[in-house]
Automatic annotation (TrEMBL):
This is Vacuolar cation/proton exchanger. GO terms for molecular function: calcium:proton antiporter activity. It is a multi-pass membrane protein. It is found in: Vacuole membrane. PANTHER family: VACUOLAR CALCIUM ION TRANSPORTER (PTHR31503). GO terms for biological process: intracellular calcium ion homeostasis. One of its GO terms (cellular component) is plant-type vacuole membrane. It comes from Zingiber officinale (Ginger). Residues 6-158, 191-307 form the Sodium/calcium exchanger membrane region domain. Keywords: Antiport, Calcium, Calcium transport, Ion transport, Membrane, Transmembrane, Transmembrane helix, Transport, Vacuole. InterPro entries: CaH_exchang (IPR004713), CAX-like (IPR004798), NaCa_Exmemb (IPR004837), NCX_ion-bd_dom_sf (IPR044880). Vacuolar cation/proton exchanger (CAX). Translocates Ca(2+) and other metal ions into vacuoles using the proton gradient formed by H(+)-ATPase and H(+)-pyrophosphatase.
Length: 314
C-alpha cells in the first residue's frame, strides 16, 4: 500500500512540473497577468483534484491539511526561494513589481483568513446555538461570500489589467526589450493539448493517492497529517516552482502571480469551493481548520503582506 502511494506521489511530481511548463508556454500568448493567473490555476489543479477525491471518500481532514500545506508551501517556501534566487542573479539592481497587484492579493489573503477564523472562533468559544450545525452554516455562508468576492476580483483584474495593473516603472519598460528575446517553444494549441493530457493523468494518480493514503500512513508509521501537509503539497506544487525561474529572469510580476496568486486562489476559491462541493455531496466540510492551523495561516499572511509592503517601499 505504501509503495503504491509513494509511486503515485513520485509520478505526480514530474507531471505537475510539466503542467507548469505547458502553462508557462501558454503565458507567452496571454501576457504576464493572465499568465500568472493561468499558472496559479493549473498549478493548483493537482490539489483540487485530490481534494474532490478525498471529499468523496469523506476524508475532510486530509482536504483541509493538504490545502493548508499548499498555501504555506507557496507563501513561505516558493516565494522565499524566488526572492533569494532573484536577489542572487540580479544582485547589482533592485527588482521591482506591480504594487497594485501585490496590494490586491494581500488584501484578499487577509479577507480570506478572516473568513476562516470566524468558524474556528465560533467553535472554540462554544457560543454556537446548535453544536456543529451553526459552525457548518457559517462556513457555507462565508464560502459563498468568498467565492463572489473572488469572482469580482477576477473580473476587475482581467478588465483593468491595461489600466490599474499596467506596469508604470520606467525600468520595467526598459526591460521589455530583454523580455522579447524569450520565445515560446511550442504553439498555443500544443500547450492547451498538453494541459488537457497532463490534467487527465494527474486525476488518475490523485485517485490512487487518496485511496492509499491511510494504508500508507499505517504501514510507514507516519501521521496522515504529515503526509497531507508536507508530502502532498510538495508533489502538487512542483509546477509552482516556475516562480523561481521567473524571478531569476527579473519577472517578479509573474513570480508574485504564481506564488502569492496561487495562495490567494486556494484561500478565496479552492477552500470555499471544497465547502460548497462537500455541501452538494452531503459531506460536513467546513472552514474550521482548528486553532493552531488557523493561527499559523494568519501569521503567515501577515508576514508575507508586511514583506511585500517593505520590499516595495524600499
Amino acid at each position: 500500500m505504501e509503495r503504491l502511494c509513494c509511486i503515485c506521489l513520485i509520478g505526480i511530481t514530474p507531471l505537475a512540473e510539466r503542467l507548469g511548463y505547458a502553462t508557462e508556454q501558454l503565458a507567452f500568448y496571454t501576457g504576464p497577468l493572465v499568465g500568472g493567473l493561468l499558472n496559479a490555476t493549473f498549478g493548483n489543479a493537482t490539489e483540487m483534484i485530490i481534494s474532490i477525491y478525498a471529499l468523496h471518500n469523506r476524508m475532510i481532514r486530509v482536504v483541509q491539511l493538504s490545502l493548508l500545506g499548499s498555501i504555506l508551501s507557496n507563501m513561505l517556501l516558493v516565494l522565499g526561494c524566488s526572492f533569494f534566487a532573484g536577489g542572487i542573479v540580479h544582485c547589482n539592481k533592485a527588482q521591482t513589481f506591480n504594487k497594485a497587484s501585490a496590494a490586491m492579493n494581500s488584501g484578499l489573503l487577509l479577507m480570506a483568513v478572516m473568513g476562516l477564523m470566524f468558524p474556528a472562533v465560533l467553535h472554540f468559544t462554544h457560543s454556537e446555538l446548535h453544536y456543529i450545525r451553526s459552525e457548518l452554516a457559517l462556513s457555507r455562508f462565508s464560502s459563498c461570500i468568498m467565492l463572489v468576492a473572488y469572482a469580482c476580483y477576477l473580473f476587475f483584474q482581467l478588465k483593468g489589467q491595461n489600466n490599474a495593473y499596467k506596469p508604470i516603472d520606467e525600468e520595467e519598460v526598459q526591460n521589455k526589450d530583454s523580455d522579447e528575446e524569450d520565445a515560446p517553444e511550442i504553439t498555443q494549441l500544443e500547450a492547451i493539448f498538453w494541459l488537457a493530457i497532463l490534467g487527465i493523468w494527474i486525476s488518475v494518480l490523485s485517485g490512487y493517492v487518496v485511496d492509499t493514503i491511510e494504508g500508507a500512513s499505517e504501514s510507514m508509521n507516519m501521521p496522515v497529517a504529515f503526509i497531507s501537509v508536507i508530502l502532498l503539497p510538495i508533489a502538487g506544487n512542483a509546477a509552482d516552482t516556475s516562480a523561481i525561474m521567473f524571478a531569476m529572469k527579473d519577472k517578479l510580476d509573474i513570480t508574485l502571480g504564481v506564488a502569492v496568486g496561487s495562495s490567494t486562489q486556494i484561500l478565496m476559491f479552492m477552500i470555499p469551493f471544497s465547502v460548497v462541493v462537500g455541501w452538494m455531496m452531503g459531506k460536513p466540510m467546513d472552514l474550521n481548520f482548528q486553532l493552531f492551523e488557523t493561527a499559523t495561516l494568519f501569521m503567515t499572511v501577515l508576514v508575507v503582506a508586511s514583506l511585500l509592503q517593505v520590499c516595495y517601499s524600499s
